[in-house]
Amino acid sequence: MADIKSLEEKFQSIVDAETKIEPKDWMPEAYRKTLIRQISQHAHSEIVGMLPEGNWINRAPTLRRKVGLLAKVQDEAGHGLYLYSACETLGIERDELFDQLHSGKAKYSSIFNYPTTSWADIGAIGWLVDGAAIMNQVMLCRTSYGPYARAMVRICKEESFHQRQGYEILLTLSKGSEEQRAMLQDAVNRWWWPSLMMFGPTGKESTHSAQSMKWKIKRKTNDELRQQFVDISIGQAEILGVTLPDPDLKYNEETGHYDFGEIDWEEFWNVVKGNGPCNKERLAARVKASEEGQWVRDAAMAYAEKQAKRKSEASKVA
Amino acid sequence: MKNWPLWEVFVRSKQGLHHKHVGSLHATDEKMAIENARDVYTRRSEGVSLWVVESKHIHASSPSESAELYDPANDKIYRHPTFYDLPDELEHI
Amino acid sequence: MNNNLLNYVLQISDNAMILGHRLSEWCGHGPILEQDIALTNIALDLIGQARSLYQYAATVDGQGKTEDDLAYLRIETKYKNVLLVEQPNGHFGSTIVRQFLFDAYHYAFYKALVNSADETLSAIAEKSLKEVTYHLRFSSEWMIRLGDGTEESHQKMQDALNSLWAFTGELFEMSDADTSALEAGYGVDLSSVKSFWDEKISEILKMATLEKPEEAWMQSGGKQGRHTEHLGYILTEMQYMQRTYPGQEW
Q1: Distance between CA atoms of residues C73 and C82, nearest Å
Q2: What is the rounded average pLDDT for all residues in chain A?
Q3: Does C249 have pLDDT greater than 90?
Q4: For a pLDDT cut of 90, what percent of chain A falls above it?
Q5: How far, rounded to the nearest angstrom, does the alpha carbon of residue A103 sit from its chain's CA centroid?
């Protein structure tokens, strides 16, 4: 199959020249598969991510906070939708992707398997979880697959209010009562490490990294992005007057970066495998929404088909 | 039961500009497709007009034909104004 | 302070608040992504309307209260929303029926309120009318789709309609606040709203192949602060933070 080899070389040279790959272009099967896996995983994360924050929509403490949070969680539905759309250009239907999510075959970001137990968690998610996600998303605006890159540009534009929304919640708590400041510190204690884990496994353990970098699907390694995130978080934590829960966190004159402690990879892999505090609930909520919505989707389709038939019969009579 | 069909969405961001492709969505008919497009793609005042086209009705040129379709235009530089040499002091032309 | 005006404004805002709250319970759980987003848009419109109205109510009240005091620190008996909007979401079809029955009322109500002698109410009505016009279009179309969809969906819609019907009479009952508002020239005559509503309901139910339920006993009391058991749970959840941590900034 010399043909495939020359096609692959040509493909790589297009990618190397920073020209985007578009849906109908030839692409290696493994590139397509990697994209489907990554984009759908990303889309699933947006949809499952609605649940922990959605918990607090009805308990938001003021009307201003309520509309901000509601609009934010709604954006996540939108972002999931844009990403599923991008994925569908690769020749797979959204329903099939949902089946993969519901059967547990597809993964989503493990961070959403942690519980949101206080209002401060909503702020911490906006600051840390969205902050970590943005690092990744900004990089993905330049990803080699056109529809994915365009979806990411749109997402990044919309996402910019999310982190501000979260940080503002925390800033208000930081200026509040002792109870509020304790609530803030507690949330940061719980969300800091899972946020660092969001960037994925380190170095060699990251199975997909090297090939994805070569194809310019990814442009930075998990570790580079994680370091970047740690570095910018320090100053932001200071303004909030919170302590990041890592005694090893300190500035390294030599590298110009902050050193940080060892991530608990055992916890990470366990949450990935389904042993996080909320894995079962999150998945069950998605399955329930899908199953309970089946009759609605069927009825709307049946009605559209009836209408189309009525229209064509009417035009025959005419 | 069948999945909802896929639709491509085009948004005119303001009067005077072209409709531009922004993405896709699912809907059972054109009415619902317009409403879904409104709810999904114009939440931040992105548009004043929408087009939706069921994706299966879009016919696209094939990337394998791009050499014959598009390359021949590359050397027709006389179609561009910069091809013609005129003195700098000449105005209003 | 004009007590009648205050009560009148609260009646309108509580409806929007409670229905917006109910709809926001759908966020993340809708039957398909596109409709999840659509329902949240309606929820955001309604909560936005409630905010404008609470801000105005706070001004009328003149005691330095805020929109949040009105939303978060009033007990059940002070809430003046109609019973219809506090009914649980049920399945998607039942949410649509509740929405449609209310939208048809809401649309005609705001349309009339645009002519209010009270400039603030008139301005809020004008802005809200655009939003509610879309809500009515959305819920009408879904009534038709699900009513005339499959056998299963038809039955579900008819059942939901039958069980929510008893809450529609209250929409057109003139409370003391309604009567004095009408007399003072800033209120709406609910009998004219009813004639639009009757027509709209008949038109859409016919297209949806649904039967209009027989006229029967109607529940009421919401406008006077006598609610179903559901409102207490809504407020418990909604007011949790403000009640647990009184007097703090969020």
Answers
A1: 19
A2: 95
A3: yes
A4: 92
A5: 19
Q: Which helix (H) or strand (E) holds B11?
A: strand B6-12
Interface of C with B in 45-84 (CB under 8 A): none
Judged by CB atoms closer than 8 Å, whether chains meet at A154 and B22 is answered as yes
Q: Which fold has domain B1-56?
A: Ubiquitin-like (UB roll) (3.10.20)
Sign of CA dihedral A176, A180, A182, A184: negative
H or E segment and range at residue C173? none
Task: Tell me what pLDDT residue A1 has.
Answer: 54
3-state secondary structure of B8: strand
According to DSSP, residue A274 is labeled I
As to burial, measured by CB atoms within 10 angstroms (0-12 exposed, 13-18 middle, 19+ buried), residue C116 is buried
Residue B35: which H helix or E strand, with range? helix B30-41
Spatial distance between the Cα atoms of C239 and C234, rounded to a whole number of angstroms: 8
Say yes or no: A121 contacts chain B, CB-CB below 8 A.
Answer: no
Q: CA A107 to CA A44: how far, in whole Å?
A: 8
Whether residue A178 lies within 8 A of chain C, CB to CB, comes out as no
Q: In angstroms, rounded to a whole number, what is the distance separating the alpha carbons of residues C247 and C250? A: 10
pLDDT of residue A205: 65
The reply to whether residue C138 touches residue B26, judged by beta carbons under 8 angstroms, is no
**How far apart, in whole angstroms, are the C-alpha atoms of residue A57 and residue A279?**
21
Is the pLDDT reported for residue A2 higher than 70? no
Of C77, C86, C134, give the one whose Cα is nearest residue C106.
C134
Residues ≥6 apart with Cβ < 8 Å to C195? none
Q: Does A303 reach chain B within 8 Å, measured CB to CB? A: yes
Does residue A206 register a pLDDT over 80?
A: no
Type of residue found at C98: R
Look up residue A251 and give its amino acid.
Y
Give residue A315's pLDDT.
Answer: 87
Q: Which residues contact B60 (CB under 8 A, 6 or more apart)?
A: A24
Do B28 and A84 form a contact (C-beta atoms < 8 A)?
A: no
- Taking the CB of residue A36, how many other CB atoms lie within 10 A of it? 19
Give C50's Cβ-side CA count (13 Å radius).
29
- Measured CA to CA, the distance from residue C238 to residue A57 in angstroms comes to 9
Of all residues in chain A, the one with the smallest CA distance to C147 is: A299
CB atoms inside a 10 Å sphere around CB B84: 8
Q: Just give the CATH number of C3-244.
A: 1.20.1260.10
pLDDT of residue C1 exceeding 90, the answer is no
Count of alpha carbons within 13 angstroms of residue A250, beta-carbon side: 4
Instruction: State residue B65's pLDDT score.
Output: 86
Neighbours of chain C (3+ CB pairs under 8 A): A, B
Q: Where are the domains of chain C?
A: 3-244
- Residue A174 neighbours by CB distance under 10 Å: 16
C180 vs C223: CA distance, rounded Å: 14
The DSSP letter of residue B49 is E
Model confidence, pTM: 0.96
Category of B23 on φ-ψ map: left (φ > 0), alpha (ψ -120 to 50) or beta = left
Q: Which residues of C touch A172 (CB under 8 A)?
A: 249-250
Say if CB C129 and CB C111 are below 8 A apart. Answer: yes
Q: Which amino acid is at C145?
A: R
